[in-house]
């Protein structure tokens, strides 16, 4: 199961996934300006109580801080069908990975987890605590799906395509298929 984020990019906060009865609930409490208290007040996750925030034990309600931008809320323009199609049209792995990671992938974290830590802080889909939020897993399943679709467009060259660096202690050698495990 995945959350096809591009489908609802025109009006993300109204997407079925945020339905207050049958979905994962909507934005966190708009009345709170205290970090960790922008609680999701409806939907299937109202009783969820994550225990950690970043690396600290800070029991709290599930929080969301929807990013608002004009004219489209929740940064929807950054993961629209058109943007996803442009990302998917990249022909080499590094370009594809970079555009997907810094574009649609990051936009969802910011759209639900908050873009600016002031004045109300971050929701649980922020980069450090995102596994607190169930939508994290549905979102990352879609990222994996998009990668698989990209690979399937040219499997002979894309299945084994990757790059980057191995980080073993202070060594940052280029990654390769021949590299041994640390």
UniProtKB/TrEMBL annotation:
Keywords: Copper, Metal-binding. The keyword Ion transport does not apply. Residues 161-182 are annotated as: Disordered. It holds the Pfam family Tyrosinase. Residues 22-153 form the Tyrosinase copper-binding domain. GO terms for molecular function: metal ion binding; oxidoreductase activity. InterPro entries: Di-copper_centre_dom_sf (IPR008922), Tyrosinase/Hemocyanin (IPR050316), Tyrosinase_Cu-bd (IPR002227). Residues 171-182 have a biased composition (Low complexity). This is Tyrosinase copper-binding domain-containing protein.
């Amino acid at each position: 199961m995945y959350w096809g984020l591009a489908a609802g990019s025109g009006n993300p906060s109204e997407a079925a996934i945020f339905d207050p009865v049958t979905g994962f609930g909507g934005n966190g409490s708009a009345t709170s300006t205290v970090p960790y208290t922008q609680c999701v007040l409806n939907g299937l996750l109202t009783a969820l109580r994550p225990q950690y925030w970043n690396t600290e034990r800070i029991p709290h309600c599930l929080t969301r801080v929807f990013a608002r931008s004009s004219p489209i809320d929740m940064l929807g323009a950054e993961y629209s069908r058109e943007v996803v199609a442009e990302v998917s049209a990249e022909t080499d792995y590094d370009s594809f990975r970079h555009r997907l990671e810094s574009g649609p992938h990051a936009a969802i974290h910011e759209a639900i987890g908050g873009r600016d830590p002031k004045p109300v802080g971050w929701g649980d889909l922020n980069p450090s605590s995102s596994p607190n939020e169930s939508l994290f897993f549905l979102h990352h399943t879609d990222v994996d799906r998009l990668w698989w679709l990209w690979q399937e467009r040219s499997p002979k060259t894309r299945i084994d395509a990757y790059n980057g660096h191995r980080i073993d202690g202070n060594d940052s050698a280029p990654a390769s298929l021949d590299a041994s495990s640390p």
